[in-house]
Amino acid sequence: MAGERKTERTRGGGWRRTALVAGALAAAAWAVWDVPAAFGGRSTGARADRLARSPQFGGQRFRNAVNTRSIMPPGEPGQERHLLRELVLGRQRRHPGAAVPVLRPGPARPAPDGLAIIWYGHASTLVEIEGRRVLIDPVWSDRCSPSRLVGPHRMHRVPVPLDELPPIDAVLISHDHYDHLDMATIRALARTRTVPFLVPLGVGAHLARWGVPEDRIVELDWDETTRIGGLELTATAARHFSGRGLRRDRTLWASWVIAGAQRRVFYTGDSGYFAGYADIGTGYGPFDATLMQVGAYDRAWPDIHMFPEEAVTAHLELRGDLMIPVHWGTFNLALHDWDEPVNRVWREAKARGVRLAVPRPGERVDVAEPPAVDGWWQTVA
Predict the structure, then answer these.
(1) Less Cβ around it within 10 Å: N or C end of the chain?
(2) Angle CA(309)–CA(293)–CA(149) in degrees, nearest 5?
(3) For 211, what's the count of Cα atoms within 13 Å in the CB-facing half-sphere?
(4) pLDDT per position as a tens digit, 127-177
């Protein structure tokens, strides 16, 4: 009898192990199967013809208005040694030492004449402007990667489930990198929200492959504008690059102006510093609030991501009032301390008299009465 019970337990354990292995293999197969789709689509037909007519398109790929390198060229003095040394031996605190405080925004309705910002983490932001809501670069996946198994993992939970977001009027995308354009999030929004998706030229091919109807895709070149519910949304210049696979710069990147009758917001997208910020400030400003990319910088790629001090300079040149730093604290994408960007921004903003708000993920910022900067991130550093 004892031998029979042991055999039964062994068989039961064997079935459980088999089921676990089968489940793991199925999950891995599904993740691998989804990777090609995550690379997105290619522009063809009328979409490709429109790309070819863009002043930013150079025959084979899009270009920046000024010379830009996505990383220092091979042979740059000290580049390889610097990156390898910091990656292997660096003492940076690249992850928080405790849980990042996350708030769940309340169900407040956007005021018809007001302006509020909710930062969900990284670049994902909700702009509530004059009774409308615009969702920027939504990434709700655990990883910013073509795979659900590998790639940068988020350092805090999302403040609210995607299906519990309030009604929105538009989704706005700055460019096609994985930390700004997430296939799973776009697919879910396409199924549940009948709103337009505003993207730079070429990015619409990705959305079309993922099930967004063509009549809800609005592709814009720099300095092109579309109107949605009383808002004017304009794609403006940025200094960056694009690509989700081996093909680079086949889609455009952009910053964005969101303008109501009285209120205006500027979002950098990803960008290195460039002189065009002053032109944007003159042409489209002043801005009640700017959403400024401040993280994921390094001296090995100075042309494509701003350093925090440069972001403050750009904010001033944009003629911005309240500055809200984004693109930090959620995904580990560089070699600096996880909280270094916001510490440097806070220091520079105080030195230059810039109004600053640093919300916790999920915290609503009333731009007219922003919360005082309290250094909350330093308690979890």
Answers:
(1) N
(2) 130
(3) 14
(4) 999 999 999 999 999 999 998 888 899 999 999 999 999 999 999 999 999
